[in-house]
Amino acid sequence: MALKGLDIFKLTPKKNCKECGCPTCMAFAMKVAAGALPIEKCPHMSQDALDSLSEATAPLMKTIEVGAGDAALKLGGETVLFRHEKTLVNRTRFAVSIASDDADIDARLEAAKLVDYERIGEREFVEMLFLDYAGNGADAYVALVNKAKDLGRVLVLNCADADVAKAALDACKALKPILNGANKDNLDAMNAVATAAGVTLGVSGADISELYDTIKAAEGKGNKNLVLDATGADAKKTFENAVLIRRSNLKDGDRTLGYPTLVNLDKIAPGDLHMQTALASAFVLRYAAIVVMSEMRYAEALALYGLRQNIFTDPQKPMKVEPGIYALNGADENSVCSLTVDFALTYFLVSGEYERSKCPVNLLITDASGMSVLTAWAAGKFSAGTIKKFFDEADIENKIKSRTLIIPGKVAVMKGEIEAKLPGWNVVVGPMEAVQLVKFIKDFTA
Description:
Elements: H1 5-9, H2 25-33, H3 47-57, E1 63-66, E2 73-76, E3 93-99, H4 105-112, E4 116-119, E5 122-125, E6 128-132, H5 138-148, E7 154-158, H6 162-172, E8 178-182, H7 187-197, E9 200-203, H8 208-220, E10 226-229, H9 235-250, E11 261-264, H10 265-268, H11 273-285, E12 290-293, H12 298-311, E13 324-328, E14 337-341, H13 344-357, E15 361-366, H14 373-378, H15 384-393, H16 396-399, E16 404-407, H17 415-421, E17 426-429, H18 437-445
Parallel strand pairs: 3-6, 3-12, 6-7, 7-8, 8-9, 9-10, 10-11, 11-12, 14-15, 14-16, 16-17
Antiparallel strand pairs: 1-2, 4-5, 13-15
């Protein structure tokens, strides 16, 4: 059971030194109990107190780090079941499955690189490769690993044969892959291989009870660097496993199940990419840290990554970009200006359309507290007064010689007010929707 603030306070030095950032030791203890601060934040806590409190105050779900260098990822570490309770921290990662006996391995590896784009300031791509050992010999599997490791993605080695797994890890252990395939029958050998290579071990079971016992056995061997393969016999059982693992961990406080989970959709819906996509959306919500699919095309990615991005953002923190001047398509001080708000989605939609037009435009982004155009206008965050303030603070008048300003069509009513606040500027009402900007700006600058 998690300790209460008073229990933690009794073990603090009671100096009220404020070095932890809290005004009193009691305030510090309450924050530690709530999970807002680590116990180590107190520089005066005795080692005995740290030893007794560290395990009890540690997050219920461990954060597991996999991959190396630029490809490194964090999995797990969640503290709540639902996004509205508190921010979800480490997003679901997508993997493409490739088997060692596939006839078109090279083509499948190339296809895994095709989805790669930016959405609202974040790179969206296939982060992992799930390399499935098909039983056709260690040489074939090691050859697959050697090809896959050049893509710069986190590797998941799905192999239950400890000898083959060792050969594969010898080829890629510096990349810190996940070795998935441990079960009650091969745990001793697989744990030894994973521990020797210093990599995360994926464990599974025929049912949730067997999985639980296997986790216990792995922890008994000193291994707490685990990923739980929640894949069941079908979609229903897999979903039950994923939910039970998360609820038992975070609601019931069972630390044995406090690890990120993996779900292999290529196993429970083989050959049906449409079903895999539908199931992937469910497991982004409940509660897979890794979702394995047979392939990932733009048709699947645009929906799944958009959903993932919506779920794994801070609901209390607006997505916004920095206010300022963004010169697009080689724009200079004589190029026409276009004004919009700092809501990230608005910025990327508008800038994307302008870039597609190939016309030079100075995109002016004003501070609207991360709100969309109409919301900011209704809240008084996007008005003639705030625009005038932005122009003064950004020194627009001296940085740009052009005196043409395009405003969003949805706030056309502001035209006269802006002209009154910005004498000498020709304010032009733009289109209602971003998708209309390409034709509009081409016609306007023709």
